[in-house]
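Aggregate trends can hide what the representation actually does to any particular protein. The sequence in question and its structure tokens are set out directly beneath this paragraph.
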Amino acid sequence: NILYLSHTGTNIGGGENRLFGLLKNLDRSLYNPIVVCPDKAGEFYAKLKTLNIPVYICRLPGWRKLKSYPFRRFAAKRLSKLANNHNIGLVHTSDLWLNYYADKVGESLNIPIITHVRNLLEPESLPKYSFNKFDQIIAISQKIKDPLVEGGISSEKIKVVYNGIEPVSYTHLT
């Protein structure tokens, strides 16, 4: 069972489209996906529900905002309990803003964690995202990977996986 942490349940952007495509094409005979959205149900939440997979709303306050500091630990415990109840064996964040929570669940349940990096980062900013605690990091291009390596993350820990597209989604354009 894999717990996917989505960046949002409301709007649909590039990262959400990639996560949806991954979940849509995941071999369900091998993997059981469960998705958590950190905010309210909206357009992306509704789209995820069409895949007939469990999708939950679990409020996850911004981990870098001072005003959310008192609530983060409780949110991480709630998320760990949900993961434990679903016998999760892997946590995959679709966005680095959820790294704090993936780390806490992985630590609590002693399971591997993976994060997806879709943004170009400065090497000096890397420590705040706890990349060193992740078992695997997925970068969407070599240009995204390079600053991670420059910032001290082992190249072996980072895999470049380019965003794929489904050509059938674009047949109406021809």
The CA atoms of residues 123 and 151 lie 4 Å apart. Helices lie at 14-25, 43-49, 69-85, 99-109, 142-150. The two ends are 39 Å apart (CA to CA).
